[in-house]
Amino acid sequence: MIDPAETAAAHETLDPTDLEGLRTLAHRMVDDAFDDLARLPERPVWRPMPEDLAPRFETPAPRTGVGAEAAYGQYRSQVVPYLMGNDHPRFWGWYVGNGTMVGALGAFLAAASNPNLGGGNHAAVRVEQQVLRWCAELLGFPLDAGGLMVGGASMANLVGWTVARHVHAGVDVRAEGIAAIPEPLVAYASVEVHSCHQRSAELLGLGAHALRLIPTDDAYRIDLAALRRAVHEDRAAGRKPFLVIGNAGTINTGAIDDLDAIADLCAEERLRFHVDGAIGAMIGLAPALAPLLRGIERADSIALDLHKWMHVPFEAGLVLVRDAAAQRATFETSPAYLAHAPRGLAGGATWLTDFGLETSRDFKALKVWLSWMDRGVDAYGRMMQRNVDQAHHLAARVEREPLLELMAPVGLDIVCFRVHPEGWSEERLDALNRELLMRVHESGVAVPSYTTLDGKYCLRVAIGNHRSTFEDFDVFVDALLKMADEVEA
Amino acid sequence: MIDPAETAAAHETLDPTDLEGLRTLAHRMVDDAFDDLARLPERPVWRPMPEDLAPRFETPAPRTGVGAEAAYGQYRSQVVPYLMGNDHPRFWGWYVGNGTMVGALGAFLAAASNPNLGGGNHAAVRVEQQVLRWCAELLGFPLDAGGLMVGGASMANLVGWTVARHVHAGVDVRAEGIAAIPEPLVAYASVEVHSCHQRSAELLGLGAHALRLIPTDDAYRIDLAALRRAVHEDRAAGRKPFLVIGNAGTINTGAIDDLDAIADLCAEERLRFHVDGAIGAMIGLAPALAPLLRGIERADSIALDLHKWMHVPFEAGLVLVRDAAAQRATFETSPAYLAHAPRGLAGGATWLTDFGLETSRDFKALKVWLSWMDRGVDAYGRMMQRNVDQAHHLAARVEREPLLELMAPVGLDIVCFRVHPEGWSEERLDALNRELLMRVHESGVAVPSYTTLDGKYCLRVAIGNHRSTFEDFDVFVDALLKMADEVEA
Q: Would you call A111 and B126 a contact, using CB atoms and an 8 Å cutoff?
């Protein structure tokens, strides 16, 4: 046993022995980050890591340390140049946000004070509750709705599914499990729904087959007549329809289902209505886009990804559940070591761990709170509107270029197109566009991603970028056309 | 539509118009955080938020901003003084880490560059893979084991459960769901297991009843004979035992099950073996504690919480799965928009989203990577050993004090005890200790938490604190005894 008379001077902690040395390094990190931000457009969007760096990431666990300065040096030289690049003005891949410096500083402050938002009576919980209330307000939800910040929309959607299963099971599904439910539960979404919904159906023990994928119209919105038919057929066959997922911005094409019509259908058929708003839930901040969301305020639950079009640094998922009591009833457990007290730190009426799956929870809300207090949410609406305008700008250019083919109507800020030399077979077109995507990435000029629409491989530009200029899209198309000439030749 | 000829000068983004102003503020944030750290022991551990501040957290969403400086000012005045306090040397509540400044800087760097670790070929993925490999190495797992960083052990345990269900279902449970499994699946853990395991059983559609809670011995370790009997009884009754959870540090008392014996039992009975190591998985870093973990290296999967005793800022959960292919087979989906490419950013053999529930994933691994590179993991072993020694120091003091009663053997670094005036009824003792807990919190002297052992309410000191000195425990006990006198009087 260490001598209890040990003095403070001899007291080793994980804090630096040279606190002022680390302070100096921290200031350098801040300056590097600001310098990187100022020089962002000069940098290639992405570049491949040289293979000779690979062994650096296969070293054994460090038993003794090299110090923070040397560790940071390795980070700057071996990691920073080869990151994803989604902070760049010409990153339009998948659907990710850029982040912001204020958000990153929020992440630092949250980690420096390091509260746990699983429970307890402390101010960080109030901040998360305020962010939840702000989202409820902006979406037309009751201000006392339930909700929770989570990693991302995959988790937020899972919370929506789990509450729906709890409410509609007709048995004590928490205790008895799926096997106790007499009629199989069935959920519905369009074929364009994100793959995380399949994961939710699988995880909850319903099975992927319990998620019916309904066809879409020409604009990739769910076919409501087909949806209604499917519900009736399942009911006639002895199954129990319980949930419809509406898309507020599909991942492939940005399509928004007719949420108001789905809400009507769910009311008539007594189904639960969950909206996957990972991409589009907040477009109401742009006045011209707000009408697209009509009906979202009638949902039972909504999943958001504030790290996408709201540009909060990862992770910043969020779910709202109209009926807070139902959300709590779905998840609450009461072990002795988490019992609440009337006063003290163990007090507080709401312990957020009772509303989802995590027990320990970080202070994600601070990134959001600081960012929105800083700029106000209307600024985000202006960024969204500009991205939508940029999508139409790009689509117009695609339609003007004889070598390019628009593959779907512009949905929000997503443009799907391909390079299409006259007379090429589908097979050759696929191969050509796959090769071009890789060359565009390797060039560092831009990062679009890709998808398959009606069996055809295409490039997919999902803008969601507060730094892109209109010119950035022309720079990309010019480079793409040049590469297409080279590959064709 | 905005004029595409818009110039860069007129280009509004979410970046600050006054980048140098924000840089100055960022440096102030760093200085404040370092000053707070230097003054930590002078601060009350926790204090209640004045009720007149509550309305500040109920304001509507800010449509226009107040600027980062004013937002930060509100954070400093309204939030910082009323946080949880778990960075303090006398915080021993529940089981949370303190965090470290290097970890907080890692959180800043991760958020500033903001990569998405769901997929793609970039350096952040290599860093996470390196951290996973380090953990595998330290736990005696194969270096090519599967794994994933997740929010916390609740999620890490859920991953372990989900893989176990997939492997043992005997049907295509992903497609067909629980209803297709002919014999009900049953899992086993001691009564001391964390409540998140009940949540896993519920979420997966098995139902809470599918988790059998097995009694423990006097040291709160699972009773192996009772475990074996339960397995045989379930099998005889037509149910299908599939999973045993071993505890490497229970939440109530820090007990460690006989992992080697559980591994033997699982091998004989062909059950999957998952270890919940949220608290104790890394104690092997302290040579004297390592033997307690014998057998952990034989598990099929292990859940860790690096934000507990490893002091990474929240969130830093991690799961290891021996058979990476099984983990991938449990979760992988292949939508067109996430298809991998041979080259470019869409390349990379391993997309981490295929190994768990999240699609977008933040760069949690950097906090770990920087921290371990900085100090080396052996330093963490020294902190753990000291916390264990401090637990024995506290327990010895409890046993010396006539007014105090030790309620369980010291388990790792957890001490459960109560104030016990001679001749008081159990009911009065409960009320007394509940009141004392709240007074201790309100005094700001220390934050222990509480639990119920064999029906008796007690104070629970879960040390896990790299800043505590031996003297800190005497300060706490002295204050507690004084308060006990006041309450008795």
A: no
